[in-house]
Amino acid sequence: MMLGIVRRKVVRDASSATLLGFSLRRAGSSASAVSHGYATSAKEALLLGKVPRLMRDFSCHAYACQASSAVSTRMDVSCLKMGSPNHKVNRCYSSESGDTIEAVVPFMGESITDGTLATFLKQPGDHVEVDEPIAQIETDKVTIDVVSPEAGVIQKFVAKEGDTVEPGFKIAIISKSESIAHVGPSEPTSKAAPVKTEKAEEEKPKEEAPLKEKARVEAPPSKEKPKAPSATPFKHSPSEPQLPPKERERRVPMTRLRKRVATRLKDSQNTFAMLTTFNEVDMTNLMKLRSDYKDAFVEKHGVKLGFMSGFVKAAVSALQSQPVVNAVIDGDDIIYRDYVDISIAVGTPKGLVVPVVRGAGKMNFAEIEKEINALAKKANDGTISIDEMAGGTFTISNGGVYGSLLSTPIINPPQSAILGMHSIVSRPMVVGGQVVPRPMMYIALTYDHRLIDGREAVFFLRRIKDVVEDPRRLLLDV
Question: What is this structure's pTM?
Answer without folding.
Answer: 0.58
